[in-house]
């Protein structure tokens, strides 16, 4: 074998439903398992010409999602290669304690992702209601008496106020839900959202966490758009 492609690390007793799965590179050999002590690596034959083609990216993700459906998994990045099975076992031995610890942290958990957006009209009204200077500059702009500098100052003031309010609200939202989660990871939001956060939640608390998300949306009201997805495989915490 010229090399092996590595998809993920699991516990050696993890269910391994690999039948029917495609491999990266579309090789004839099916995915298989390299076991070393309490750990296992899911691998396949290394393709001769590895490139991030759509088909191969899909095969990589599909295999990882199949494993994650059955328990804790440490997914490897796309394109990770090893010279042979011996090198894979050596890596499992070298990182044995770290891998075992991380798999233990993920055991019995799921990921919930929350994205939040807010009506921009509602947010603008709040900024104007809370700032005498913003109201003055806005009136000058509306009645035509303001200068270019006034319009520029209004834009900068509103942008600062909007950013400050959204940062504060994002912190408040994360704080309200963090008590029900083992961990949280805040990612960069899209241009339409002010918050994109993932929570690592024990499956035993899944319904409690979902209920807290619904209560949160109710408390903030119709001006906010909360989108809570889960339970999901804990991608944000396993990588």
Low-confidence stretches: none
Query: Cα distance, first to last residue?
Result: 27 Å
- Major sheet details: 5 strands, antiparallel
Number of strand segments: 9
Helix tally equals 8
Q: What is the 3D shape? A: elongated
The Rg value, from CA coordinates, equals: 24 Å
Strand content: 15-25%
Helix and strand string, N-terminal first? Answer: EEEHEEHHEHHHEEHEH
Structural features:
four-stranded antiparallel β-sheet; 9 strands; five-stranded antiparallel β-sheet; elongated; 46% helix; alpha+beta; 239 residues
Characterize the structure shown:
The model has no long low-confidence stretch (mean pLDDT 89). This protein starts with a strand and ends with a helix. The strands form two sheets. Strands 1, 2, 3, 4 and 5 form a five-stranded antiparallel sheet that branches. Strands 7-8-6-9 form a four-stranded antiparallel sheet. The protein is built from eight helices and nine strands. The chain has 239 residues and is an alpha+beta fold.
Task: Kindly summarize this structure in a few lines.
The protein is of the alpha+beta class and 239 residues long. It has helices at 54-68, 85-94, 96-106, 120-130, 132-143, 148-178, 206-220, 235-238; strands at residues 4-11, 32-36, 39-45, 74-75, 81-82, 109-118, 183-187, 195-202, 224-232. The chain is built from eight helices and nine strands.
């Amino acid at each position: 074998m010229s090399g092996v492609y590595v998809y993920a690390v699991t516990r050696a007793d993890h269910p391994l439903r690999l039948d029917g799965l495609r491999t990266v590179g579309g090789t004839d050999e099916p995915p298989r398992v390299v076991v070393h002590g309490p750990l296992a690596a899911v691998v396949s034959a290394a393709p001769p010409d590895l490139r991030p083609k759509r088909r191969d990216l899909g095969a990589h993700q599909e295999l990882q999602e199949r494993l994650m459906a059955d328990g804790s998994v440490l997914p490897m990045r796309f394109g990770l290669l090893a010279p042979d099975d011996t090198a894979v076992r050596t890596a499992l031995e070298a990182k044995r304690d770290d891998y075992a610890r991380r798999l233990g942290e993920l055991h019995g958990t799921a990921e919930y992702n929350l994205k939040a957006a807010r009506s921009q009209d509602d947010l603008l009204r709040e900024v104007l209601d809370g700032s005498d200077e913003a109201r003055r500059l806005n009136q000058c702009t509306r009645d035509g008496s303001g200068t270019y500098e006034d319009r520029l100052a209004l834009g900068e003031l509103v942008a600062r106020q909007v950013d400050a309010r959204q940062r504060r609200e994002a912190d408040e939202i994360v704080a309200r839900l963090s008590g029900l989660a083992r961990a949280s990871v805040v990612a960069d939001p899209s241009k339409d959202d002010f918050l994109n956060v993932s929570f690592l939640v024990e499956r035993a608390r899944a319904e409690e966490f979902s209920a807290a998300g619904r209560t949160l949306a109710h408390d903030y009201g119709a001006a906010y758009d909360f989108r809570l997805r889960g339970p999901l495989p804990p991608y944000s915490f396993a990588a």
